[in-house]
Design a protein that fits this description.
365 residues; mainly beta; Jelly Rolls; eight-stranded antiparallel beta sheet; 4 helices; globular
Length: 365
């Protein structure tokens, strides 16, 4: 994963004033640079051609490779205390491929916090991130955070990374997801650090926790093996739903993942949501803990795109086959992500296109 060493390679941003940074890229890369953890060839440059401009005079072009042995970031080193007043980050993103991007904030002598946002292929995507969207990285090699909370005044660098680069480091995962290697490009426009506070997209109530109200312009799920993914307002169902288009194939899996803040599920009893599918689909609903343990339950979503309601008790979930500890106990206080996996290609050798809709997910007490 990202390391402090890579983040330290970033070129320091210019300027010592107390205002929050706002990158319009009209003066070049404005402090952004490429950091290469493994491999070669990653680079950033300012571009001014009309197809790659959106909301500012210039755009930042980040070119890199998705392949085994290639890991890089585009990042900005900020001065100490420069982001003390930060409450949100806004920017536009254009990718030449469908992928999920992680935005990371690295504290000085502290933790690394990340927020996911999906990028549609060849379409400008507006991104709005609140500080509450950033979750502490808990991988084995992630830096520890002394106080366990994001302190904007301690943030020393910001980075963008295509999460497919991490998946490409494991050949078995690449094969199951049908991941293709090659050169990729992402363009950033009007990257703004702001004092403006945004409403939380994950909402805790007295008897439930809403994982995602789908209120952001971007969708904040990680997509694996997806042809496209978006927050749909024109689905067969009322309101906003997560819409995922993909191809089911023998020996392949497709998944959507939502990172949750550890502790958010404490004291809860079940996970409830509505789902619809164009074709009959076999899903695994899984939760993963900070320690890597996984628990799941299978469900069937009938085709013909009609809505079905599910309420799955946590105490009926079984230890997953791929959980590293088969004797693990479910500790809801350390759940780090919710995963929905389409396993139709394994259980029925399905070979077809499918569309899956997921309504807002509630964790009930």
């Amino acid at each position: 994963m990202l390391t402090t060493v890579v983040l330290g390679m970033l070129v320091a941003a210019g300027g010592q004033d107390s205002s929050l940074p706002h990158n319009t890229f009209d003066r070049g890369t404005e402090g952004w640079s490429a950091g290469q953890m493994a491999g070669t060839g990653a680079k950033v440059e300012a571009v001014y051609d009309k197809p790659h401009l959106k909301a500012s005079p210039g755009s930042l072009a980040y070119s890199y490779k998705v392949a085994n042995g290639e890991v890089s970031i585009a990042g900005l080193q900020v001065g100490e205390g420069k982001l003390a007043k930060l409450n949100s980050i806004r920017f536009w993103m254009l990718a030449d491929h469908e992928t999920t991007v992680a935005v990371t904030l690295q504290e000085k002598d502290g933790g690394r916090y990340s927020a996911a946002c999906h990028a549609a292929k060849n379409a400008w995507q507006e991104v709005q991130l609140s500080l509450s969207d950033f979750v502490l990285s808990t991988e084995a090699d992630a830096p520890k955070d002394p106080d366990g909370k994001l302190d904007p005044d301690q943030v020393e660098s910001v980075a963008i990374i295509d999460m497919e680069q991490f998946l490409a480091q494991n050949q078995a995962i690449s094969d199951v997801l049908g991941l293709k290697s090659g050169t990729r490009n992402i363009y950033l426009s009007d990257f703004k650090f702001s004092e403006e506070k945004l409403p939380d997209s994950s909402v805790a109530g007295s008897d439930s926790y809403l994982v995602d109200d789908y209120s952001r312009p971007q969708q904040s799920w990680i997509g694996l093996g997806m042809n496209s993914m978006a927050i749909a307002k024109d689905s067969p169902f009322a309101g906003r739903w997560l819409k995922a288009d993909y191809h089911e194939a023998p020996g392949h899996a497709n998944a959507v993942i939502r990172v949750v803040r550890p502790g958010a599920l404490s004291g809860k009893k079940s996970i409830a949501f509505s789902a619809g599918s164009a074709k009959d689909t076999q899903l695994i609903v899984q939760i993963e803990l900070v320690n890597g343990a996984k628990f799941n339950t299978p469900i069937t979503v009938s085709g013909m795109a009609h809505s079905q309601d599910f309420n799955l008790p946590f105490d009926e979930m079984k230890v997953a086959d791929d959980s590293p500890d088969k004797s693990a106990k479910l500790d809801l206080s350390i759940v780090k992500q919710i995963i929905l996996v389409d396993i139709s290609g394994f259980v029925s050798s399905s070979d077809q296109d499918n569309t899956l809709w997921i309504g807002p997910i509630k964790i009930k007490a």
